[in-house]
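Take a record:
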Amino acid sequence: MVKQLFTPSQLAFKELFVGTLIYAVVLGFFDDYTGIVDAKSFSSIFFAAIILQILTSLLFLLKKRIVAWLKDRKEIGYRILMFFMVWLVMFLSKFVFIWSIDAILGDNVNINGFFGVLILAVSVTVIHKLADYAFVRLGKR
């Protein structure tokens, strides 16, 4: 029998903590080296990172529920519906991200455009997946 090393609460905390730090680093680099992010201070970047990580966690929870709701249905119509609903949620979430940052932080942080958020989200996702891969690999030694 394999003993579980971490509780679900610990894993959720790790996910939120590491995700926020990854968002902060990526936002900082994008602020320094691109025109996609414009921030007035590191504090603003860090608050944006917290907001974006919370929204990302909620987004993946919603996606997981949609898939769980439709995954056991074998008809092709349900498969198409699941694909469309997941795509729609992922697509519309970028607008929610932009609106939330603008509503909460105003002119302190600007993420320029839908594609800016998309590039930011892809960058954060890739880095987060690499961090998760490293975390798992370190546990296997």
Q: What stands out?
A: Residues 76-105 form the longest helix (30 residues). The mean pLDDT is 90. The chain is about 80% helix and 5% strand. Strands lie at 37-39, 109-111.
